[in-house]
């Protein structure tokens, strides 16, 4: 299943979400022109678990910046486009509910904690972890809590049939999370997972859980959420 659009208008113009999409795309265009220097840039600005934990063990915090810079790096056009489309579909409503500044810092925090989750399972890996997937997973988790009854127009392929059903957000995003959890479990059973690389499934899971928990951090959002659910016809 692939999301096309949801049926919720944003509560305010989501210029931070749009800015994140443009910034991330700009960084990728910068990556493309690096040529042979790209690998070195990935090592410097991506989260390399062995280097990250090694620096912390020595009492150095210089690797903490990569928890942010790695969010804006991507491994290819498909990686970039898939992430940015999910952010485009779901991010505007979350920003509308959180407000611009809070949304920006939530996005960075979800991405950083997602990288930590992945790095905890690959402590010796020297392969850089990159991508906005963990940060976006945080957005998805928070969206599911805030707008569970929103409907998502979805592209669904069933053999030769192409369908476009509208699916409730809690079902669509719940299924997305189940797929991530299953894929993460399988990856841990594969011998190759011990060396890192591939898809950072545990970053997806970590980011999503951050999103689920985030609504408990801000009492004002919780109060507003309860109020919206009490109003007739509200999607909350």
What does this structure look like?
It is a single chain. The chain is an alpha+beta fold and 236 residues long. The chain has one domain: Up-down Bundle (Rhomboid-like fold). The protein is built from 10 helices and 4 strands, in the order E-H-H-H-H-H-H-H-E-E-E-H-H-H. Strands 1, 2, 3 and 4 form a 4-stranded antiparallel sheet that branches. The longest helix has 22 residues.
State the gist of this model:
This protein is of the alpha+beta class and 236 residues long. Helices cover 61% and strands 8% of the residues.
* Dominant shape: globular
Content-based structural category: alpha+beta
Strand % is 5-15%
- Helical coverage, percent range: 55-70%
In sequence order, what are the helices and strands, one letter per element?
Answer: EHHHHHHHEEEHHH
Q: Superfamily at the CATH H level?
A: Rhomboid-like
Report low-confidence residues grouped into runs of 5 or more: 230-236
Give the tally of structural domains: 1
Q: How many strand segments? A: 4
Q: Using only CA atoms, what is the Rg?
A: 18 Å
At the fold tier of CATH, the topology name is Rhomboid-like fold
Distance between the termini: 24 Å
Set down the secondary structure blueprint.
Layout: E1 2-6, H1 15-32, H2 38-45, H3 49-57, H4 66-69, H5 77-98, H6 100-120, H7 133-146, E2 151-158, E3 161-163, E4 166-168, H8 169-189, H9 201-214, H10 219-230
Antiparallel strand pairs: 1-2, 2-3, 2-4
């Amino acid at each position: 299943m692939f999301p096309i659009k949801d049926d919720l208008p944003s509560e305010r113009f989501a210029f931070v979400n749009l800015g994140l999409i443009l910034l991330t795309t700009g960084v990728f265009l910068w990556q493309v022109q690096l040529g042979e220097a790209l690998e070195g840039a990935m090592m410097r600005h991506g989260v390399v678990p062995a280097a990250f934990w090694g620096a912390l063990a020595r009492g150095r915090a210089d690797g903490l910046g990569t928890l942010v810079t790695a969010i804006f790096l991507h491994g290819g056009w498909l990686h970039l486009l898939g992430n940015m489309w999910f952010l485009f579909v779901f991010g505007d409503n979350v920003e509308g509910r959180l407000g611009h500044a809070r949304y920006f810092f939530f996005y960075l925090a979800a991405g950083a904690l997602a990288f930590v989750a992945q790095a905890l399972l690959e402590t010796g890996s020297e392969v850089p972890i990159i991508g906005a997937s963990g940060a976006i997973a945080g957005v998805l988790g928070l969206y599911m809590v805030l707008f569970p009854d929103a409907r998502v127009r979805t592209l669904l392929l069933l053999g030769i049939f192409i369908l476009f059903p509208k699916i409730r957000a809690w079902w669509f995003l719940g299924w997305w999370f189940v797929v991530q959890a299953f894929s993460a479990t399988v990856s841990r059973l594969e011998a190759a997972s011990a060396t890192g690389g591939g898809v950072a499934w545990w970053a997806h899971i970590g980011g999503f859980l951050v999103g689920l928990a985030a609504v408990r951090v801000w009492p004002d959002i919780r109060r507003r959420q309860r109020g919206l659910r009490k109003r007739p016809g509200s999607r909350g």
